[in-house]
Write the structure tokens for this entry.
Amino acid sequence: MKPSRLIGFALSIVVASGCFSQDMTSLVMKVKAKLDQVNDYEAEGKMKTDVAFIKAPIGKVKVYFKKPNRFRLKKDGGISLLPKGGVSVNMNTLITTSDFIALAAGESVVGGVKTKMVKLLPANENNDIVLTTLYIDEANLVVRKAITTTRENGTYEMEMSYGAYIQYGLPEKVIFSFNTKDYKLPKGITLEFDDNEKPLTDAEKLKNKKGRVEITYTSYSINKGIPDTVFK
Amino acid sequence: MWTLIQVELYKIFRRPRTYIAFAAITALIGIIQFGLKLDGDTYVDFMMRDINSSITVDGKILNGYQVCYIVLQVLLVHVPLLIALVAADMVSGEANMGTLRLMLTKPISRTRFLLAKFIAAMTYTILLLIWLAVLALFLNMVIFGTDDLFLMKSSYVVLLKKDDIFWRYVWAFGFAALAMTTVASLGFLFSLFAENSIGPIVATMSVIVFFTILSTLNIPVFNSIKPFLFTTHMIGWKEFFDIRVNESNEAIIGSIQNPWRIVQSALVLLLHIICFVGASVWVFRKKDILS
Amino acid sequence: MRDIVSVTGLTKQFDRLTAVEDLSFSVREGDVYGFLGQNGAGKSTTLRMLLTLIAPSAGKIHIFGEDIAVNRNKVLGKVGAVIEKPDVYKYLSAYENLQLFAKLSGCRANEKILMDQLAMVGLDARARDKVKTFSQGMKQRLGIAIALVHDPELIILDEPTNGLDPQGIADIRNLILYLSRERKKTVIVSSHLLSEIEQVATRVLIIDKGKKVIEGNASELFDPSQTIVEITTTNNERAFLLLQQSVWKEYLQPRAALSIRLKLDRKQITALHHSLVSMDIELESLQPRHSLEDYFLQVTSGNQHVDTYTGRTL
């Protein structure tokens, strides 16, 4: 391919995408506007961790959010184990600024609902998020699924289903999926003598390096004000 | 028999040496408690440095249950040495003192005499563990409070819920009692072959240190003999702190990952005890008392 | 009188060493049975076999008519013993030791009985003191109190006077006589010192190198009328010749290197002395000896023996 033609091809993509992006940005902005009704929330829910190297029971969690992007997941008493990255993100923090480029990427069905796929590119080069693909339910103006690629924490996926709080764009259930890093501790530290065979009932599970964290929210308390100390 | 056991226990608990182990455990746990109370956060940071890149752990990690686990992990390797101090002295000490021949001129069968001694040594072992439990578990529960227990295994981490832990400790201490009784029975067997206490005590300690090193070394050549070393099975108490998960990788409250492994280890230890005590009786019945 | 102890063909082999060889003897009811031999002669090994501390290689031991290999506990309930040093629990008091062993002997002794027992051996004032503060003699007496606490019929004392001062030795001697005469006990007492046995024993067994040398009534063996007189002169050779030609010829014992020995009645000593003077023999010493002691010295080499079971030189 000659250079002139290459440039021409590239330009045509930029122009074409620019046309679409206007359209998609408005959609994203609408979703954002819906989310923006919520200044803060405190939610209770149950968290299930499905990571190969973590054995934890279902635990009660409390989730706190405050604009613009403060988010905190706390176990309701006890100890919480969260795989690095991924989980500490919710939709409200994902679309915090208007400083992005939104590109249409077709349509898809998520959980039986028709959605528009939108690729979201942050304008800020230093943003940890490299790319987010949103699956937006146009009818309800909520995000059904989001795939985010970050610089530091790999790619993770969020799938959301909605219930009573759909008017605020707050999900009833969120499933985070992400790639887990290997975990290995020297025996000298754990003071174990025997070679521990892999602990899982299903050995196949280990080959699957995808981790999942599932949070089911039971109640939200929206815009009641949350002290900043919670986020420390 | 009861009179004999009473007499043996009376002798054990009238000797100053007996209390060395209790004092040592008290001091060690005291030091650990003091250190962790003072600088627990640093310890937790150090403990977590390897997994911090993979997991964020939030909450009161350093609670009473965690401290108890740390104490057991550290102490249960050394308690055998304290047990050897008394168990390996049971017969040799009397031979050394010269009281053995006096005891054996009494109308008591040698088998009963030896079994009474063994039961006394076992009682001492169990009392030592009860003392350990009082200090390491109950006292730490008071000092550090109770919460969930976060444990790092060599290839995964385990989170146990606060109210799913105590019963595990009860069983773990029970298992530890079995493991320590194995040590006591080994020391006991050795104590038959000497007329001073030092030899059998050192011999027992040496065997335990040697076997423990073999059990710990992760060298393929040694891996095949590990299942045959009783020291490998002595840490079986840790299995109580591993939980099973269901299909969706969710920990099942009140479950144990490898109950069979515990049963197997317990049986191996029990077999050792039977062999060591059996051998002791066999040797002792034929032994000429020359001390 | 029935036999309390009856031993036949008793042998104990330690590896290559035969500590006791084909030993037979019997102890009758009421005897103070003196068991005499050099250190390492096999006395302790034999007594330990009587007490089932050592298993015999061969031979039978019956005590109170019971085979001890079969009815050990039944027999030992009626036996009290002090074997060598009277070792007890040093971290316990005299009273606690006595109480403990009384329990093991199966007797329900109350405080009064125990204190009486301690009083008998003169330890009542020190009853509550830890044994580690006791002298050797006090330990020995405590050992005897322990041996007697269950009122045994047979008492075995192995070298009870070892390490004791003269007063201690006299105390033990008196105690043995008391036990025998007042309490009608049968006592087996061993020693390597003839003088001790001589003063208490009714019957005597001498062993050497694990074998029986002689067994008999003390009254015969210790017959005071018969004695060996040992004389040394300025010229033993000449004296010996002169005696050979005199009336004393029949009393002369085989020629010894440094002395001349005659076996005669004690009453004849004065006459012997007169004869020697009349024969112009210049006397350096004249020493009457017991025939048993002489015999003892003759048969037991007097050298130090190696302790047959521990290999220690005593």
In short: The longest strand of chain C covers residues 3-14.
